Amino acid sequence: MTSFILQTNEFESIIIEKAQGTWIWDVDGKAYLDGESGMWCCNLGHNHPKMIQALKNQAELIIHRNKNFLTPITLESAKKLLDFVPNDFDRVTFLNSGSEAMEFAINFAKKATGRTKVLTLLDSYIGAFGSAKDLSFTSTKDLELKVPYPKCNTGECEHLEKYTSVVDREFEKHSADLACFVLEPVMVSGGVFKSCSKLIKYICEKIQDIGGLIVIDEVTTGFGRTGFKFGYELFNIIPDVVVLGKALGNGYPVSAVITNSELESKISKSELYYAQSHQLDPLGAAVVSSVIDIFKGEQILENAKEKII
């Protein structure tokens, strides 16, 4: 039955027909508890009724438009998202997937700094294609600019002392070319591990001291997955670029790159130009708006913390 589907990965034998909340049902009516929230996307549960209604309402108005036009819901959602994310950001664009957004963010950092190299942590997952994939643990490339992932949950570890010389050596060799440090706040694909806060803060201070940028990959960790709105809040750092996906659309394919006008001003219009068919589409923007409203209105983060305690 599935022989006509490209085998890009292994597929389960069951065929899923519908979903609601934390449950999914196959075509035979058998229910399964979805412990992974789809592909770690549905932080609000499958088919949240307010999100579905927002989709319906927007679909009756306009789903898609030419790239040269904006819509009221796009502007509304952009402002709402900027107000929702901690720190003072004033620029955002909506894209389709986390990988696309990460690729955009890395290239944005390179153009804003005029540099070409990127520092990241070993075993991170950054993206599925392009330079983002090259930075990920799935890459076949042996990139030297990868610091060992400092797994630490206690705050009392010795990673700072252990890896300071490794970090310093990379900065001594590449500081003139380092565009950014890309951080996945919590490792998710190689096991779920938090980074050492002290070492992360040390790297972030060094990258900003040399004029490089901090790019945060919040595709998986954003919207409450860490106990905070966003994973970077675990480290008491202020990033330059934040990338969102997955839970931003609660299952709908929409992502975002957030930054500030000061960095935008460092890039020429021709270099900044990016045209993707569904960038800033109103349907995705409507989903983003509803997700933020639900997250705030239903006090998702506060309720989750209360239930954990």
Biggest beta sheet summary = 7 strands, mixed
Q: How many distinct domains?
A: 2
CATH architecture assignment name of the largest domain: 3-Layer(aba) Sandwich
Question: How much is the radius of gyration in Å?
Answer: 20 Å
Number of helices: 11
> Kindly state the mean pLDDT as a whole number?
92
Order of strands in the sheet with most strands: 4-12-11-10-7-5-6
Fraction in helix:
25-40%
CATH fold-level topology of the largest domain:
Aspartate Aminotransferase, domain 2
Give a count of the beta strands, DSSP E runs of length 2 or more: 12
| Sequence of secondary-structure elements | EEEHHHEHEHEHEEEHEEEHHHH
Unreliable segments of 5+ consecutive residues: none
What would your notes on this structure say?
By secondary structure, this protein is of the alpha/beta class. It folds into two domains: 1-35, no CATH class; 49-308, Aspartate Aminotransferase, domain 2, CATH 3.40.640. Helices cover 36% and strands 16% of the residues. It contains eleven helices and twelve strands. A hairpin with a 5-residue loop joins strand 8 and strand 9 (193-194). Helix 6 (159-174) packs parallel to helix 7. It is globular.
